[in-house]
Design goal:
- Its cofactor is pyridoxal 5'-phosphate.
- Pfam families: OKR_DC_1.
- This is Arginine decarboxylase.
- GO terms for molecular function: transaminase activity.
- InterPro entries: LL-DAP_aminotransferase (IPR050881), Orn/Lys/Arg_deCO2ase_major_dom (IPR000310), Prn/Lys/Arg_de-COase_C_sf (IPR036633), PyrdxlP-dep_Trfase (IPR015424), PyrdxlP-dep_Trfase_major (IPR015421).
- By secondary structure, the protein is an alpha/beta fold.
- The chain folds into 6 domains: 17-107, no CATH class; 130-284, Response regulator (Rossmann fold); 301-339, no CATH class; 352-619, Type I PLP-dependent aspartate aminotransferase-like (Major domain) (Aspartate Aminotransferase, domain 2), CATH 3.40.640.10; 623-696 and 711-723 and 736-775, no CATH class; 793-903, Molybdopterin biosynthesis moea protein, domain 2 (Alpha-Beta Complex), CATH 3.90.105.10.
- It has 35 helices and 23 strands.
- A 7-stranded mixed beta sheet has the order 6-15-14-13-11-7-8, sandwiched between helices.
- Helix 3 (63-75) runs antiparallel to helix 4, helix 11 (287-296) crosses helix 25 and helix 17 packs across helix 31 (811-817).
Length: 917
Amino acid sequence: MSKDANPAQKRIDRFFSGPGARADDWRDLVEAAKTWARVGNRAAYDAALADLSITEEFHGYPGLPLMAALREAAATGDGSAAFALATRIAQALATRSFRQYAGDWSAKDDGNGDAPELVPPSFGAHTARRPYFETLIVTGVSPGQWPALAAEWRKLRRPVDAFIYEPVIVGSLEDAFCATMLNPNIGAVIINEGFGLRSRHDAPVLRSIMGAAGLNDETDASALRLAHIIKRVRPELDLYMISNRDVEELAGNPEADVVRRIFYSVEELLELHLSILEGIQDRYDTPFFDNLKKYAQRPIGTFHALPIARGKSIFKSDWIRDMGEFYGPNLFLAESSATTGGLDSMLEPTGNIKKAQEKAARALGADRVFFVTNGTSTSNKMAVQALLAPGDIAIVDRNCHKSHHYGMVLAGAQPLYVEAFPMTEYSMYGAVPLKTIKQALLGAKADGRLDRVKMLDLTNCTFDGHIYNTRRVMEECLAIKPDLIFLWDEAWFGFARFSPFLRRRTGLGAANEIEAWMRDPKSVAVYEKQQAELGKNPSNEVLLKTRLIPDPRQIRLRVYQTNSTHKSMSAIRQGSMLSVKDVEFHTVEQQFKEAVFTHASTSPNQQLIASLDISRRQMELEGYGLVANAIEIAFAIRQAVNSNPLISKYFRILGADAMVPAQYRQSGFTDFLAPGVNWANTLKSLDDDEFCLDPTRMTLVCGMAGYDGTQFKGILANEYNIQVNKTSRNSVLVQSNINNTRSDVAHLVRVLAEIAGEIDRGLAQGGANARKTFEARVTSLMKDVPDLPNFSHFHPSFRGDAGTKTNEGDIRSGFYAAYDVAGCEHIRLNDPEIDQRLKAGPELVSANFVIPYPPGFPIMVPGQVITQETIDFMRKLDVKEIHGYDAKEGLKLVRTEALAKLGRPKPAAQTKLKAAS
């Protein structure tokens, strides 16, 4: 997305332009100052400084004094001084040294930072490193008084304070909103009464959004309304309100629950200062990690079964001491199998793990969170086992992670598979259309089996970046079945909680919005109006076409979300969180404990637990900025690849228009980088479209370069030290994350340019035969692609308890049928017998899961009837890794005779036992 819709005019509503864009602006100023100092042309410097000054108002550093010093240099005609100061500020921003070094706040470069009127008091006076943040102050006082107001706040700093902050002062609701969006360093907000509505600067896109939110008149600029707006976009921030009115009445207003504390006038400025620090400390505290550090420093004798604890067996050894030298002593000092002495039990947490999980629940917007130390595969199986019983039906995305399929086997639940829309050209699937999900629910209802449909189990976002309209999915499903449980596998999407744009597309984000809607008295009227329009007995055809509204009085909101914390936050590998927002959780709490006991290790890794605790701290305190940077990095990669004349000949990153069919982009949104795209129309897409694309997940097509995905992934890793995610037949998945930098972008682009150049030279020097061979390879990868196989159906032997209008089956019986060795057979993939049986029978029935990588989901499940399209797909596969399939042995099938036995009626005793269970 371009930085400005109108380059001639600086805009303050560039919410997709993050730290990188700000750094570019400062680089431009430095270059302009350099030109002025050397050549004498000041016009470019004046223009760059005027532009920069607008958005810099929303940042604590460099602040009003240093920006004034830059303008003063221009006024006195001192180009050298302007160049020197601009350079020092840009370097301080790039290195973030201003957070600790007082000299960076000085307009003079005299080696000792001696400029007391500009240097914030107490910077550099504290020996230990203190985390730095900025506090937004929204006030009605005139801008001429802001420097004095900032000075008063700086006087409150004390050497004993654990943190240090700089005030950022604005005078309107729009500017407060922009500062909240543009400044990731803001950690707290103070809202005084008496501020205005409009910004002093141009922001037409922002004002269109504010108008849509009903903010049109100066009287709309209330402190409480601003508090709700900020809490919606940055829920992690602590909000404080200063009122000159009846604060007791305001404090008792339920609408004020978004505010951490309310103060009367400015009578207790020090108390407000201390409250701000306490709020930051609350987010900074990591109960388990803090106790683990204390534990590691105690002299402890270990007489338990963990010899590596304390590291003596490591550091005293001549043979494995290098392990200790590599990891350092703290890793071993912090190892223990004890759950006492300041530690806690993962299985029955009552102390610091419990507190850490409670903080994680607050950060993620959940009622409760479970830490999981063996990956989201386990989180998914725990949720499925706890929430489903034998005979329950779950609507499941057939392309979901294998852990969900295995969870159904463990629970004895019957999966009713639904299909995602295919992307055959790229050998991948998208996501499951809402119409398909509604058809499954309505089919179960027509069969009289809706009561047995307990769960909808979907992946959000998908491996390739497809994001559901989670609120719409849940609302329409709840309109059909008000107590349906939702399990959102958001393994790759945990970071989205900390983006105001993506949060609404998460399971918990949508659940919180639905919960707020249910409390709105208008919701019942909206529901009843639609019911009157639909009539008493609307047809399924009408229901499928209608955007259904649930009855807010009947909804039982039950939402579960799993996140691979290690995939998008700073957690060690296998660190996962399972979040719960379920009004009926008390009815399944014991089942959840049993699921934890079943799957969780009794010897969890202490470092994993600590990293989950730490990752929560980081995301609450700086996650907003980190995620904004990851999105900006993704935009930079997309732009660099697709706009480079050489690279784009052989590689391209697919836009939203290529990844999401037009029928699911109701807003008309095409791509993040399309001309004219800005924050407003992107937000409309996020609100309205059935599917959106996660900007951080980039499908890089490599088939045009003659490489299949697996081959190209190997080249990047082995020859250029670049690691990427999954592959398809003709693409690789590139993902930006909170760890990436602009240097990473430059490295990737440089490598792609080098590879593209080599292809260009090879084709130019190789003659007609080389080009013909290359074109044939590209055609094979890009055109001659196998059709993707859909799930066929379960064999009747595994559908004895199924309905007539739905396609669920007993996957557990199918799974255990494979344990009967005599009842199974193997047939090689190219054996003519397969073709004969596909035409004349008997049917081929899979005895196990078959999961090729890519695409990474089961193309066969136990008990499934294998069809011609599945065989064709497997025969065209050229991947090396296929779980559940041995090429030497062939397909593992359930014999026809065994199927006949499985299909016979069960003895009465077994039938009664099943009914009782």
